Amino acid sequence: MKPENSVLKVLAWFDLFNYPLTLAEIQCFLDQPLTQDKLKAQLQELVERHVVYRPGGFYSLQSDEALATRRNKGNQRAAQLLVIAHRVARLLYYFPYVRGIGISGSLSKNFADEKADIDLFIITSSNRLWIARTAMHFLKKLSYLGGWQHWFCMNYYIDEEALKIDEQNIFTATELITLMPVCGDETVHQFFRINNWVSSYFPGYTIKSPAYIDSGKGHRIKRFLEYLFNNRIGDRLDDYLMKLTTRRWKEKEERHRLTMRGVRMGLSTGKHFSKPKPGFFQKSILEQYQQKLDAAYAKCEKQNVHLEPHAVGADVR
């Protein structure tokens, strides 16, 4: 694949979110290795051909200086919110059966707008996901009293028997490599090792380590609570909570309820996972990405930038 193709793939993806990139960021997300000098040369050609623009010194498919201002402000807000996110993640790690926690969503990409949430990715021990999830969401209910509910967006759960991500596409691959692990040394490393399929999208990706080493603080109470439910009662309770939550979310879907960002609410549930329904968000994003990528390739052809023959209409998976 020609370097131009790879560069446009990266820029088209982040252009969906109106997020211009630095040279180093583009290099990180390329699907083939390129030296910095070669990448600079490819970008310079695309800039000269008016396919790529330089708002505020960043790279983008849009010629809009407001994008740079938006990004800089979002980066500043993210730096402040990440401090809170780390505290929240460390607190939740003390809950029973929690084995790993990471920061996901826009915050994991160092961006936060005025309505930013703290999105969290959580791994639990096997067959106890629903006990852990219910306990953590009880805390979220209490957070409404202080107006802190946006700090506790625990929207993606898997347990240690379902570490491999089923939906393998550019959306999930990007989310995986930008995930900021906070707690859970062994489990988090195992999660990244099992999901080594991401290297087919981002060959330069390296496994991340959690920000904090497990300190053992508070683990005595955690172990005691787990001991109370490591039996048949715990098995039945976990099954009951899964069925209860599934029924409640099914009612929300039938009423076509929307999130604050206008996305249809939906939860995909199973014994070993609880996650947003891919069809309600991922599908739309992937379709928009393909359209934006095709438009960028078409512009290259018009500006006589050489691309591989199969580039236009390429499968973005």
Structure description:
It contains ten helices and six strands, in the order ααααββαβαβαααββα. It is an alpha+beta fold and 317 residues long. The chain folds into two domains: 3-64 and 283-302, Arc Repressor Mutant, subunit A (Orthogonal Bundle), CATH 1.10.10; 71-280, no CATH class. Strands 4-1-2-3-6-5 form a six-stranded mixed beta sheet, sandwiched between helices. A hairpin with a 2-residue loop joins strand 5 (267-270) and strand 6. The longest helix is centred in the N-terminal third of the chain and has 27 residues, at 66-92. It is elongated, with a radius of gyration of 21 Å. The two termini are 16 Å apart. Residues 308-315 have low confidence and may be disordered.
* Integer tally of domains: 2
**Classification by helices and strands:** alpha+beta
Question: Gyration radius, to the nearest Å?
Answer: 21 Å
Indicate the low-confidence ranges by residue numbers. Answer: 308-315
Q: Give me the strand/helix succession.
A: HHHHEEHEHEHHHEEH
